Here is the input.
Amino acid sequence: RTNKEGEGSLSDLCDVSLPIPMRGKRVGTLRVGISLTQYLKANSPRIRWTMAFFALPFAFLSILIAIKLSESFTRPLQRLAHAVSEVSNGNYSIQLPLNRRDELGELAHAFNVMAFRLKENFTKVSDMANRDGLTGLYNARFFQEALTHELERAKRTHRPLSLVLFDADRFKRINDRYGHPV
Here is the structure.
């Protein structure tokens, strides 16, 4: 509270009392008091500058820490998104770094296992689609794809391409007599 002149009243005082000892006996008490209202009025610019002096560097440091923390999460997630895109485009060889021991590290490990298994399965399925199940020889579809690829390469490199075809007459007799391995 303040009185009519704007000065602090006794309830506004902050005071400290200290005993004054002399030869082991208390001879008096020193009491110092200050009006908080008057102190704040007189020192408010200095208090503001002091607070700003400490608050601004702390705020700046807090922002830097927040940026670093957010990067420690967003960069691995961006790498994961890129890796997922690569796998969806058929690149099953991509692997994420495993240098973390947190949930993002577990996610990277799970992704690497998934990409490895997808590569294995794609290789198996591709092989099954391109080979004859009985003889293990490449089928006509594989031949057409390989021929198209080689023709494109010959055009691109301006190198000659030779194609040699063999036709075995009465192949069924050979197959029946010598079996599929021959």
